[in-house]
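Lab notebook, bench 4. Still working through the backlog of constructs that have no structural model yet. Next entry is a single chain of 289 residues. Request: give me the structure tokens for it.
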Amino acid sequence: MARPGKKRKVLFVLEIIVLLLFIGGLYVYGQISSRLDKIKQPELKKEEIVVNQEAPKMTGYKTYVLFGIDSRGEGSKFSAQNSDTMIIVSVNNDTKEVKMASVYRDTLLNIGNDTYTKANAAYAYGGPEQAITMLNTNLDLDISDYATADFSALVEVVDDLGGLEIPLSCYRRFRKGTLTVEEIIERIGQPDETTYEVLLAHNPTYMETYQKWGADLVLSGHLHGGVVRIPGILGVISPAFELFPKYSGDLYRDGDKISVVSKGLGTHTFHIRLWNPAEFIVLHLKTCN
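Model written out:
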């Protein structure tokens, strides 16, 4: 039979644990609440949103759109309002299943008044109303709800997750920067030699370094096919003004290493594409028996 004094000690410890959990819950609630208070909720002018009346009507679903705009905040010289990220979110009201589809920023669409240009420009010209109208009329959708995040929100998220310093030395014009295997390990860690490593790397200039790190498959882009291509040979120039870049757009094999560099859909620096058709790549990865 336990002594009364021992029971009191156990109860006291339980009370302390419950109190700490309560205080921790209040702290988490306060952090979430403070961030929610920063969210701007401008009134959407729904009367300005156009829906394609000839589009098939779907019931049982609710569709939203998430915009990511390239604004760094008021007063910044980088304060454009292009929606470089557009994610359409469809929610099944019965099963609560969520499906998402991304609209590429360089997709050529009618953004209004029969003006055909990159889809990301609609938000800059007419805010969420024009961007939503563009999606509705071009893609036969019925969207009236949205959320928008800018670079400031992205910075806060990255900081909350511990932060990530990404130098711009690898994106200098007229000269190639340096990137070492050690720098990759510092940022994303060691590769897992027991699995098939797929690396998403924006800039293909450092392809050999990615492979030395341990990537089995590298998916890249950035060079837009070399802007101008010599048919059957290679791209002519990169956004960094490098002539005849080695990895301008193709599927490359080096032993058992594979690299896929997309020529993309849009343009960069020079708004032309000669002998360089836009492309959308679909990969099917299968396990080996």
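Notes after review: The two ends are 62 Å apart (CA to CA). The first helix runs from residue 4 to 38. Flag for follow-up if needed.
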